[in-house]
Amino acid sequence: MQTKQRFDPKSPEIQALRREIRLGTFTREGMMVAFPMCLPGVTVPIVHDESRITALDITPDGVIYGGTSGKQAHLFAANFRGLTGIVFDIGAPAGANRCAGMCFGSTRFVAFVNGPRGGRAVSARAVSLFQDLIQEWSFTRPPLDDLGECVAGEPVAHAVTDMSRRTAVGVTSGHLFTVDLEGLKIQVVGEVPAASRIALGSKGGVYGCDGERYLWRFDPKTREMQRNAVPLPAGVWNHSMSWARDGRNGLLYTAEGGGRLFSFDEERGFSGPLGRAPLAPVGPMAATLDGRVFGFCGPEIAKMFCFEPRSGEVTNLGVAVSVLERRRYGYVFGDAVTGREGEIIFGEDDDGGHLWLYFPRIRA
């Protein structure tokens, strides 16, 4: 006869688990919701090993556009406002296994994808997701237009939309280029070093890492490119930079390789060190409507953190976990955007990837 094991709340194992939870092993503030890549109960999610979310953008109306990576790249649109709650698979660009950037204009989006043929741009018109999904489940996939290679033979590293939402600015492994989001014309601007992620500054300039000591600057209006434009603060900058943009004032946040956080304003330049993330390197980040910055840090099993600009406090919020409907843990994330209501949307860069909606705690 098998003896039932007695639960001892004072055992060393249980006490150790409680200490880990108190230290923020799992999400300890706000609410995480992991949303599958489909219309739940109606459509099938994007294939398990083709659903690593690596690029996101959001429209002024709050519709999210993104792209995945894996054996095959997919492009998708998502909406969580009103009677929607859907991730819609727009399509899979031929010969692409990674989406490196997503830029939405006024009526169309342009996605930047990589594959054996190098980096390419594909475009389609906007998808209407403002339906009553309780009664109408009919959607039409718009055709994907292949705009061709961005720079011959070079993979795309990242791309952003300018302030007018008329131009996408992107970088490959060695060049900077632009795409007219209405005319769909690609133009190569000039050479840049091996590219990391780029960002839109407070005055409309686009910035990227120019080696280990400077940022370059590109003005989408005048099309002027300035190398070695801004000195980087002391630190380790030989990594792929991550950026978060405060939508209220355009202030940018980034981190050096050791996890120290800095802000950057086009007129004032870089701040001094603002704090240090719990782990390094720092991954995707986004700023909510009150200026707080939320992001993930650390390799493989990333932890979430919050930076509060007013107090300078950096808080370890733990590993992502969603407990609504189905329990899921989130370990690796590829991109982040801020939603209309101040929620942060993270793209999970893992097999069976989900869109994670984080609703920050409301501070008194």
Beta strand %: over 45%
Separate helix tally: 1
| Global Rg | 21 Å
Mean of all residue-level pLDDT scores: 92
Largest sheet descriptor: 5 strands, antiparallel
Q: Spans of 5+ residues with little confidence (pLDDT < 50)?
A: 1-7
Please report the total strand number as a whole number.
Answer: 31
Alpha carbon gap, first and last residue: 56 Å
The helix content, as a percent range, equals under 10%
Note the overall shape.
Answer: globular
Question: Topology of this protein?
Answer:
Elements: H1 12-22, E1 31-35, E2 52-58, E3 64-69, E4 75-79, E5 86-91, E6 98-104, E7 108-115, E8 118-125, E9 145-149, E10 156-161, E11 167-172, E12 175-180, E13 186-191, E14 199-200, E15 206-210, E16 214-219, E17 224-231, E18 243-245, E19 252-255, E20 260-265, E21 269-270, E22 275-276, E23 282-287, E24 293-297, E25 303-308, E26 313-318, E27 320-322, E28 328-330, E29 333-338, E30 344-348, E31 355-359
Antiparallel strand pairs: 1-31, 2-3, 3-4, 4-5, 6-7, 7-8, 8-9, 10-11, 11-12, 12-13, 14-15, 15-16, 16-17, 18-19, 19-20, 20-21, 20-22, 23-24, 24-25, 25-26, 27-28, 29-30, 30-31
Quick structural summary:
The protein has one helix spanning 12-22; strands at 31-35, 52-58, 64-69, 75-79, 86-91, 98-104, 108-115, 118-125, 145-149, 156-161, 167-172, 175-180, 186-191, 199-200, 206-210, 214-219, 224-231, 243-245, 252-255, 260-265, 269-270, 275-276, 282-287, 293-297, 303-308, 313-318, 320-322, 328-330, 333-338, 344-348, 355-359. It has 364 residues and is mainly β.
